[in-house]
UniProtKB/TrEMBL annotation:
Source organism: Sharpea azabuensis
Alphabetical list of Pfam families matching this protein: UPRTase
This enzyme's EC code(s): 2.4.2.9
Pathway in which the depicted protein is active: Pyrimidine metabolism; UMP biosynthesis via salvage pathway; UMP from uracil: step 1/1
Name of this protein: Uracil phosphoribosyltransferase
Family (UniProt): Belongs to the UPRTase family.
Superkingdom to which the source organism belongs: Bacteria
Catalyzed reactions: UMP + diphosphate = 5-phospho-alpha-D-ribose 1-diphosphate + uracil
Amino acid sequence: MSVKIIDHALIKHKLSIMRDKDTSTYLFKQNLDEIAMLMAYEVSKDFPLKLKDIETPICKTTGFELAEQIILVPILRAGIGLVDGFRMIMPNAKIGHIGMYRDEETLEPQEYYARFPKGLESSKIIIVDPMLATGGSADMAIEDIKKRGGKDIMLVCLVGAPEGVKFLQEKHPDVDITLAALDDHLNENGYIVPGLGDAGDRLFGTD
Ligand SMILES: O=P(O)(O)OC[C@H]1O[C@H](OP(=O)(O)OP(=O)(O)O)[C@H](O)[C@@H]1O
Ligand SMILES: O=c1cc[nH]c(=O)[nH]1
Ligand SMILES: [Mg+2]
């Protein structure tokens, strides 16, 4: 399993705007869209290709196309915020949904919804969620997808805590994790420090 933190000036700039508590809901989503596109570009750079015969205006030649179906799986709610950016550059991706919220007392995830396209077992599955805190939600999502036959799974989050990364590395060594930032620690309420607060609330204007 690998844990990769993307080192990119634009991502650092945009993520800092998102972290700022005075950033509006509109600008929060705008920057999330832009970071999602940059992250999608980065995580897909080694996706397998197959050869494809094409004809340019000049001659016949051999081009490429992605060899595998991509299934993007946002963990609701906040994960929805990463879907638009990923779809901009992966327009053929199918979308699965897992609905989950953390119990505020125990921090245990509760799954309330799941719906997937067919073909999990032969697709490249990208789970997206802005926040990886204790890792409980991502773990439950990965377990659910594995039970349904998914094998080739990666996790893409904006901000991760060391506690959650360690938990997932031990539990799912086959799942690669990509982050835009690895933060310092979790506070007593299970929030990432410095983090960006509650991603779902900031994205949708709830509190
Ligand atoms: O790693 P964990 O400790 O499980 O925490 C991370 C989860 O918490 C947030 O969702 P939340 O439960 O706030 O639900 P929401 O997206 O509906 O706001 C976040 O979007 C993750 O799904
Ligand atoms: O910091 C955190 C931790 C969990 N979920 C969030 O939205 N933010
Ligand atoms: Mg939330």
